[in-house]
Amino acid sequence: MFKVQGINHITIRVSNLDESIKFYVNVLGAKIVHKGNTDIYLDVGGVWLCLIEIKDAKPMDKNQVGVDHFAFTVSEEHFPKAVLMLHEQKVSFTRGPIQRGGGNTVSFTDPDGNEIEFFTGSLQKRMKNWN
Questions:
Q1: Considering the chain, what is the average pLDDT of its residues?
Q2: Which of 53, 88, 115, 117 is catalytic?
Q3: Which residue of 9, 23, 89, 127 is surrounded by the most CB atoms within 10 Å?
Q4: Quick check: is 19 catalytic?
Q5: Which helix (H) or strand (E) holds 42?
Q6: Can the keyword Hydrolase be found in this entry's annotation (predicted)?
Q7: Dihedral sign (CA 58, 23, 42, 34)
Q8: Neighbours of 94 (CB within 10 A)
Q9: Domain ranges of the chain
């Protein structure tokens, strides 16, 4: 048997690489690690994201099987600042900000409609809250 050590990276298909780079850098504070012709590698709080441009890409139907969203941890202290920044960037909110699952949460979308969440809780807090 082997042990998985953690997430290595997440790859996201986008329709316009330049527009997506602006979003991930300006909204998530991503650091550019490498930029190719149709892809870019970013570091977001220690998480490796790869964006791949797919010309003429169509958004996924919300009723399809696939990734629903991904979430980044934000401290309670910085959560209000994060929400304010999302408003200032005119980001499209899908839920919140609300208190849910043992922490504060806000969900929003990137330019292609991929849902992202900022969450202040932990797995342990969430499980206490759900049980």
A1: 91
A2: 117
A3: 23
A4: no
A5: strand 39-44
A6: no
A7: positive
A8: 14
A9: 7-55, 68-131
Q: Which residues is 117 bridged to in the sheet?
A: 71, 107
Torsion 92-95-98-100 (CA) sign: negative
Lowest-pLDDT choice from 5-14, 96-105, 122-131 = 122-131
CB contact burial 98-123 (16+ within 10 A = b; e otherwise): eeebbbbbbbbbbbbebbbbbbbbee
Domain 7-55: CATH class, spelled out: alpha beta
Mean pLDDT of 92-108: 93
Q: What is the mean pLDDT of residues 82-91?
A: 95
Query: Can you list the alpha helix ranges (DSSP code H) found in the chain?
Result: 17-26, 79-88, 123-130
Question: How confident is the model at residue 57, as a pLDDT?
Answer: 79
Which of 80, 77, 96 lies closest to 88 in space, CA to CA? 80
- CATH fold for domain 68-131: 2,3-Dihydroxybiphenyl 1,2-Dioxygenase; domain 1 (3.10.180)
Select from 111, 116, 113, 115 the least CA-distant residue to 19: 111
